[in-house]
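Q: Sequence in, structure out?
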Amino acid sequence: MQELSWDDLKVLLACSRHGSTRTAASALGVSNSTVARRLEVLEAAIEGRLFDRTPDGLLATTLCEELLPIAKTVEDTISDGQLRLTGRDALLAGKLKVSIADFKPVNQLFFQSLCEFSEAYPRIQLDIRSSNDKVDLSRREADFAIRGLKVDQRPPKDIVGVKLGLLAIGLYVHKNLLADARLGKRELTFIDTTEVLPTELPTSTDLGIKVKHCIDGPIARLDAVANQMGVGALPCCSVTELTDVVRLPNTQSLPYRYVWLLYHKDLRQSARIRALFKHLLVLEKNWPSEWMGQTSRK
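A: Exactly. Output:
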C-alpha cells in the first residue's frame, strides 16, 4: 500500500463532512474533478472503498470510519502547529483572515474602522469573508472573527473574546401604516418569524393583532416593515437611518445580542492580531447608543 499524504487525508475529511465531492471541492478550493480523482487514487492506494456512491451523496464505509479518527488527529496536529507558528509572529506584516457576520448595518461601522487599520498598517493584508455561518477558529478558518452572540452566550474556552457592544431589538412599523390603522383605513397586522427572539418581546397575541406574514432574516423583515407590510421585530441598529420607520408605541427595546471580538488563544502573541484587536476595541467607547435601544425615537 502506498503512503498516505496530508492532501489525501484532507480529501477524506472533506468528503466525509460534506457528503459529496462537489461540496468537498468547494470547501477545499479545488475543482470537483480534482476531488473525485484524488478520492479514486486514494481508494486504489489503500485497496478498498471509502465511500458508497448513492443518490443522496457519499456514505462512509467501515474502512472509512476506521481511517477518520487518524485523519482527524493529523488535522488537529497540523492546525495546532500552524496556530503556534502564527502566534510567534512579531512583524506587523502579512495576511490576516477576518470573518465578519453578513449584516450591513453593523458592518458599515466595522469597515470604517478596518479602512483606518489598513491605512495605519499598510503591510498587513486583510482577507475578509462575510458570512453568518459558524467559523472554526481552532482550524484556522479565520484568524479573527466578529460575531454577535446571544446575551447569555459565551465563546468556547479556547477562544479569547471581548464584548464590543450591545445590539437591542424592538417592534417597528412604518409611520404611515400606523397612522392609517389609527384612522381605521388599514388593518395593522404582525410579521411573524421562526427566529428565536427575547421572550419578553410582545407577541401578536400580546398586542391583540393578527399575524399576516412570516419573514425570517432581519434585513428581509426590515424591507417588509419599510414597505408597510406590518409590525416586525428588528434590531435597533437597522432602523436608525429610516425616518419613516418608528418603534411601535408603548413597547420597549430589549437586549438581543452582544457583538464580540474573537480569536484563538494560541494567537495571543501575534503582533498582527494584537494590533487589530486593539484598533477595533476603540469602537467599544463609541458604540452607538441607538443600537442599544437608548434613543428618543418613538
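The two ends are 72 Å apart (CA to CA).
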